[in-house]
Design brief:
Radius of gyration: 34 Å
Distance between the termini: 84 Å
Helix content: under 10%
Largest sheet: 8 strands, parallel
Strand order of the largest sheet: 20-28-31-34-37-40-43-46
Shape: elongated
Number of strands: 51
Number of helices: 2
Amino acid sequence: MELFRFFISIFFILSCTSSIDVQVYSVDRSIYVESSSDGTGIRITNINLQTSETIDLYAVKRAENGEFESNLSVSWELEGDIGQLLILSGGKSAKFEAQSTGSGKIFIRKNGVIIKSVDVAVSEFVNTVDSVNMTNITSQSFDITVVTKATLSASDSAKLYYCNHSKIPDCDPRQWYEIDMSKNGKNFEASSPSFKFPDDPKDEIKVLTSVTLNSGVSEQTSIVRLDGPAQIYRSIGINNTSALASRTSSGTNEALITDSVIVFDNPLAGNIGIGDAIVIDHSVTAGFEEIFFIRKRISANQFLLNDLNGAELETDYAEILNWEIYRAYSRVTDTNTLDENTGIPAEVRNFDTSQDAVNDNKAWHFAFYADGAWSGSGKNNISGWNLFGDNFLRFFVPFLSTHVGVSQRHSGKWDGTKAMISWVGSGNYQWPFMQRGAGKNAVRVEGFQFQIDDGGYANIYAFRVDDYNMADGAYAYFHHNIIRGVGVGGGGFSFVMGNADIKGYAFNNIAYDLGGTGFALEGTNSVASHNTSFRNDWNFLGYSGSGTASYLGNISHSSSTYEFRSSVSGVLSDYNISEDTTAPGANSYDNTTLGEIDFVDLTGGSEDLCITTSSLAYMLGPKMIEESDPFKIYYDAAGNLRRPSDTVFPLGACVRN
């Protein structure tokens, strides 16, 4: 049954005459103007468009309970000179194109009677951003497109700002890297550079697009997660087989897991973090059923988890009866055989079974915690691994807030409470890390304190690299380490290559009191950058068997024999400081004094070889943070953040502000 009501519009003429326009409306509560023909759309009662925009409209009939019945034919009318109404599908739909500013109405009639009206308002067109899309995401790059609603004008522009959110938590993209986006019709487009170390596969890149349209600015921030191999994180706590924290069925600190994030009722200790193993019991069956690994610390009581293959979890756990947290490994040497921490319950142990990172398409990160010093002797040759390119092996000390609550890494000065390796020679040619042989093509060692005592033997190094049976394109990274000699002392980083296609990078390291060489590199692709070498027998040594390495932004002083010895003048060599006249590079400083260098503290046993802001080395030196550099240095050895926008880029390993 139809209900009727009458609306009388009276229009008065300024004279004594008048006219009356009477229209009859039928309010049919079963017929609606909607956005889709199949009943899945929304009801439209008013429309707000800009000029040149369009909208599709459909007449839909519904039952009293709201169920869709049909898309029916009606008569469509437009009131007001604001655009064009195109009737489609025999009256079942219409397309309205806004052409002029103003207001009007769209009517639908059935049997000559108006049964619905829609108010329409049209404003002047202002181009706006429609969407921001990331495409072609690889392990090293991505493309970005900003789509707008209309063809771009000459005055329109856009910039892309970005930063590595994984390596620099909560970074502001505006303080880092900037790209002018190109125009293509309605779109702004840009491609990221090809990212290089330390920007790794699966890192999160924070992106900000700043778009100027019609003199107005629109900004949007997004996160791009790079593609690439699965990232496997495991912790190492020397001789620490006990649970770091636990909850039993009769205990406290409940936990639950939702969307791969475990949340505890109470905060955990500050030394629990990335790579640690969490075992859970979620059923009445005795024993633990699952083991997960911390991928990221969110807060003291929240952690992002991965499964044993580096993937996010597929299941939530609302009820966890018991949980325990362990270091994944209790010895560095056990990583050569994948012998996990024996304290972890046996039913969930044996989680690592393959060292073939290349064919498994994985990258391995072993986080070394300051549970105790690794004291050893002899040779620890990295063995059993098949590594190359993005499928690397990394030994590192956690220090970021997304790693751990309390940094395990030194701050540019020897600290007995931080992660440490103590090595004593028991024969010639020994080391805690040795990269050599087939498959050992991609290794990183970062953030350690090495105490080296050669014990009267020759060639005792913190990290030794030899290209024997290694493939073209192999590499080694050694950075943010402190190496100090005791007794006679040994050596720091030795990179001996007969192949110019293999590269070694040593940067932001501090080496002192060594009876051997602080840093020795060769190869045209190898770089020693921003290191401080002090009171060693040879501070810097350049071999030339596979070409000359580059030495850039280093400080050398008080050696027993050589500051910079032979073949240190690679193509990038510059801005070095030396006590004698051997510093390579046109902008280097020779014959410098300790007073000019101004180390913080030279007191024996408490040395601080960061420079002060009064140092000669506190200058606008080589940045080593641009995308065009061989690699980027985000932090100095003291943990100070380095940004491309900085006005000072000091030489040496670190500055103490």
